[in-house]
Design goal:
Length: 162
């Protein structure tokens, strides 16, 4: 269900991330969901420790925006908006392969998530390549509710009002 984000992925096998592989432009494809794929990792080969929790955007109007969710402990969860800034949004967008201006959104701008709230009080300089380089995943009790879920708008262009 939902968007098909990648097509024509051509990895050689030495990349640290699927996003490092050549691929078509985001959202451009000639696929159907009947062609969706998956992987099964064995404990011996699933040892890449590159500091990235996988990140996705959900409930946006395009593939360039949405609520930020990260995959930790096998479960997708949201990020709390305490200290969430455009610098943090820029890192998320960069991790997802976007290079334009990033705009942070707070207070469940793209709706409330339903899973756990995985991260809080993220502080990125804006130069990191992944969200995992900004904050250590922390599953301790935090002071957030889903009304504080963060979102981002990648490749953001401000519309000028005439």
């Amino acid at each position: 269900q939902g968007f098909i984000l990648l097509d024509d992925v051509a990895c050689v096998g030495t990349e640290l991330s699927l996003l490092d592989c050549p691929h078509s432009n985001w959202g451009q494809h000639d696929c159907s969901h009947a062609e969706d794929l998956g992987v099964r990792c064995s404990p011996e080969s699933n040892t890449v420790m590159d500091g990235r929790p996988p990140v996705r955007l959900v409930d946006g109007e395009s593939t360039k925006e949405g609520r930020v969710e990260v995959l930790l402990h096998g479960q997708w969860g949201s990020v709390c908006d305490d200290d969430w800034t455009d610098r943090d949004a820029a890192v998320v967008c960069r991790q997802l392969g976007f290079s334009g201006t990033a705009k942070a959104r707070a207070m469940a701008y793209f709706g409330e998530g339903h899973g756990p709230i995985h991260l809080d009080n993220i502080e990125c300089s804006g130069m990191e390549h992944t969200l995992g380089q900004c904050a250590t995943p922390d599953t301790r009790i935090h002071s957030c509710w889903h009304t504080e879920d963060v979102g981002v708008m990648c490749d953001y262009v401000e519309e000028k009002v005439p």
